[in-house]
Amino acid sequence: MLWDLFCRVIDNFGDIGVSWRLAAELAQRGHQVRLWTDDASALTWMAPAGAPGVQVLQWTDTAPHSAPGDVVVETFGCALPDAFLASMAQVRRPPVWINLEYLSAEPYVERSHGLMSPQFSGPAVGLNKWFFYPGFTAATGGLMPAGARVTADQTRAWAQEMGWLGNAEEQLVTVFCYQNVALPALLQTLSPQRCALLVPPGPARAQLQTLDLPPGLRQVDLPYLRQPDFDRLLACADLNLVRGEDSFVRAQCCATGPFLWQAYPQHDGAQGPKLEAFLDLYLADQAPPLATEIRAVFRAFNGRGSVPNSLPDRAAWRAAHALWGRKLQAQTDLCSQLIAFVRQKQA
Ligand code: TRH
User: Fold this and answer.
1) Selected catalytic residue, list 15, 101, 106, 246
2) Closest residue CA from atom 28 of ligand 1
3) b/e map of 109-130 (b: 16 or more CB within 10 Å)?
């Protein structure tokens, strides 16, 4: 099938990161993808070689030269250009039009996944748009697939090759969060263990530059990595501090080490319920002492409480993480679900 994927970059890398991941995954499954974006700049490092089957195009508000594809995906409600909507309404067999939403574990996701939004006015009058919600349960659209699995040993050897690992005893901790009030206290809980903090460019690195690192911790500033290497980075870490949407998912699907997630901060505080809803699912199968400890440190990492004196027992935390990972693996992935959803709407 031919897919038109639209992506508007609001800020950071999540919008283009998720869109690129989906585009590349569809193409790998034999589909043709046109990725329309208003800002492709991050793709120069995220996907420098592009991907066969994916064409990256400048978002245009004027009528496109070619007819719309079989499927049109509007990522994160980015509102398609009127001229494109009009061209969708004009073709004999209109494309299946999907709004791919933000990821959340909140209950509204199960209620809203797969709903139809008939268009009663505007350039796409007469067409239906379908809501597709990623999620963590069977009644949602699932998560982007994990890609090739690599063992912790393979990735550690890679970290060594990259020059990030000081010695075999050193723990690897990625620091890919936003500006974070809990970071200084959290680093204290890691010390005096020997840890290499692997820090991509961004707000966390800027914050670390203002801190004196406690004993045992060593900062390694990373360049921007290709997306598959970024995934590998998370896979090799003993602990991942992640954020937003895409790194949050990768830390759950690709990594053996546990993670802490900083939800994207919003002015209305929407990240609070989002965090709690995720923790409710994530910790549902864990016994109370561990679940309470993990919840406390996740909350602290989101500015909702103070950092405990110590982190949860690492072996127990790892086991909890593995259990959750197995649960996610049993789900049908987002790409497969999306293709099946489209085929059902075309039938
Ligand atoms: O960049 P983010 O903060 O993105 C956010 C969230 O998606 C948020 O929900 C959304 O509202 C906001 O953007 C607009 O974090 P996220 O989601 O983890 O995306 C990071 C992407 O960048 C991910 O696809 C991985 C990619 N990446 C690389 O490929 N290489 C790198 O070196 C780095 C640092 C990131």
Assistant:
1) 15
2) 227
3) bbeebbeeeebeeebbeebebb
| Fold of the 152-329 domain | Rossmann fold (3.40.50)
Q: Establish whether 25 is a catalytic residue.
A: no
Ligand 1 atom 5 nearest Cα: 14
The protein residue whose alpha carbon is closest to atom 10 in ligand 1 is: 14
> What b-and-e string marks burial along 150-184, b requiring 16 or more CB atoms within 10 Å of the CB?
beeeebbebbeebebbeeeebbbbbbbbbebebbb
pLDDT digits (tens, 9 = 90+) for 221-236: 999 999 999 999 999 9
pLDDT band at 70 (very low <50, low <70, confident <90, very high): very high
Query: Percent of the chain beyond pLDDT 90?
Result: 91
Q: Is 212 a catalytic residue?
A: no
The full set of domain ranges for the chain reads 2-143+332-346, 152-329
What pLDDT, on the 0 to 100 scale, is given for residue 60?
85
Out of 25, 231, 245, 293, pick the active-site residue.
245
Looking at CATH, the fold of the domain delimited by 2-143+332-346 is given as Rossmann fold (3.40.50)
How far is ligand 1, taken at its centre, from the CA of residue 81, in Å?
Answer: 24
**Position 345, amino acid:** K
Say what the pLDDT of residue 149 is: 64
Give ligand 1 pocket residues (Cβ under 6 A). Answer: 10-15, 17, 46, 102, 176, 200, 224-225, 227, 230, 243-247, 264
Which neighbouring-strand residues pair with 132?
100
